[in-house]
Amino acid sequence: MDYYYKNRYGCKVFKVTLDLGLSCPNIDGTKGYGGCIYCKGGSKSALNKELKPLKEQFDEVKDILHKKWKNAKYIAYFQNNSNTYGELNYIKKSFEEVLTYNNVVGINIATRADCISDECLLYLEDLNKRTDLVIELGLQTIHEKTSTLINRGHTLKEFEEAYKKLKKAKIKVVVHIINGLPYETKEMMIETVKYLNSLKIDGIKIHMLHILKDTALEKMYKKENFHVLTREEYIDIVCDQLENLNENIVINRITGDPIKADLIEPHWLEKKFTILNDIDKELKRRNTYQGFNLSILNRARLLMETNLKNNDLVIDATVGNGKDSMFLLSIVRDGYLFGFDIQKDAINSTDRLLKENYRNYTLFNTGHENMYNTLKDYKNKISLIIFNLGYLPKGDKDITTKSDTTIKAIKDSIKLLNKKGHIVITIYPGHDEGLKESTKIKEFLNNSSNLAYKEYHNTDNPTAPYVINIKKNK
Ligand code: SAM
């Protein structure tokens, strides 16, 4: 979020949190009582507390943050409870008031999917034309069972309907989710993120569940002692979630900071910055990033570049448009690349692409089943061989790799590998010949005791492309 705002406004932008003293439909009895079980905002003391005038609230926060950032601009952030739930005139008056404050560049409004009336939406649509408006919708989880357990009080369908209405009005939407809700598995938490990614939300806030004093959740925890995520589990899950989020989705938060005096569990949340740092470190260790898992080609590239040295000899067994060859040559600058393709056009266009920057390659306009005969002098000398099977994305689908020749090429190519050498194959079982290749390659590998292999999938969809990495057994 920090990068996003700096890019947009050319300076530091911080959020000034404001309280309108509003309630929630599942606090006041409209939908239910007590609010979400983890929330303290529904308590009598929170709702009845004396509110300072908006300007006073604003200046107080702004003055503190200004000590750290001198030339910053602000987002007025209406955070507590549901800030579109209440007397519309009062709400409008408050939003309009903050727009008159100096250097307020936008307004973020936290609310629930079930409290944006049609009248309110019309107003927000107009407001959106006058300021940088973001609606923050609490969802927490897509799983109805958990939703009921936490007394959320609205369904996923209601969320989706409200989301679509906001997007139709061209309003940006940031969605809040919570990791570690009682009895949710890692897979369930990742599913929530995959769903949000498919909706193309604008931003996300990821929280770790706080178990706070004097909440229904505290009682449930003391009675049922459900599993609370460890710090390591949380970091692992967040990294997996980030890998499944499109790079355009702005990460507004990946951990929260609870008031220490209220916190029952988990205490590791108290050191927010060390968690942020360790999420960074884990991504670095994995060599991945936000959106990594959305294309299997990222995994293929990562496998290709791992352990590859600048003087290695490599083979691209299916040159195609030359993008993979180009990638490999950017690493083996003092090494050499051999490329194969049966299509003359593919060889010519790849040559045009590569020769602008490189000289250290030779392309052969012949099938990879001839690779061993062509390169026998390089027996035991090749560090990496890649196969990107199938047909060219926009090309003739009949000119595709074929299982029989692919298997022959793979078998032969083992002899060319040096000690650290390996083969990276991207397979597309979504078309008939690709499925045949997939089955035959695995059959061959399972019968080859001298080879070790690992499969990498980025979805559960059996027809989606996947990658195999093959090494010789020591
Ligand atoms: N890696 C390429 C890139 O970065 O653009 C894309 C490769 S494309 C999916 C598959 C390519 O394999 C096609 O260009 C096709 O002509 C080629 N091909 C098909 N049969 C082949 C064979 N027996 N030997 C070598 N290449 C073959």
In a nutshell, what does this entry contain?
By secondary structure, the protein is of the alpha/beta class. It folds into 2 domains: 2-292, TIM Barrel (Alpha-Beta Barrel); 296-472, Vaccinia Virus protein VP39 (Rossmann fold, 3-Layer(aba) Sandwich), CATH 3.40.50.
Net shape? elongated
CATH top level of the largest domain is: Alpha Beta
Largest sheet: 7 strands, parallel
Distance between the termini: 47 Å
DSSP strand (E) fraction? 15-25%
Number of helices: 17
**How many structural domains?**
2
Structural class, by secondary structure, is alpha/beta
How would you describe the oligomerization state of the chains in this entry? single chain
**pLDDT below 50 for ≥5 consecutive residues: which ranges?**
none
CATH overall fold name of the largest domain: TIM Barrel
- The Cα radius of gyration reads 28 Å
Main-sheet strand order equals 1-2-3-4-5-6-8
Number of strands: 16
The distinct ligands, each listed once, are:
S-adenosylmethionine
The CATH architecture of the largest domain would be Alpha-Beta Barrel
> Which range best describes the helical content: under 10%, 10-25%, 25-40%, 40-55%, 55-70% or over 70%?
25-40%
Question: Whole-number average pLDDT?
Answer: 94
Topology, element by element:
Layout: H1 2-9, E1 13-18, H2 44-48, H3 54-68, E2 73-78, H4 88-99, E3 104-111, H5 118-130, E4 132-140, H6 144-149, H7 156-168, E5 172-179, H8 186-199, E6 203-208, E7 211-212, H9 216-224, H10 231-243, E8 250-253, E9 263-265, H11 272-286, H12 296-305, E10 313-316, H13 323-331, E11 336-340, H14 344-355, E12 361-364, H15 371-374, E13 382-388, H16 403-413, E14 417-427, H17 432-446, E15 451-456, E16 466-472
Parallel strand pairs: 1-2, 2-3, 3-4, 4-5, 5-6, 6-8, 10-11, 10-13, 11-12, 13-14
Antiparallel strand pairs: 7-9, 14-16, 15-16
Helix pairs in contact: 8-10, 10-11, 16-17
The structure holds S-adenosylmethionine.
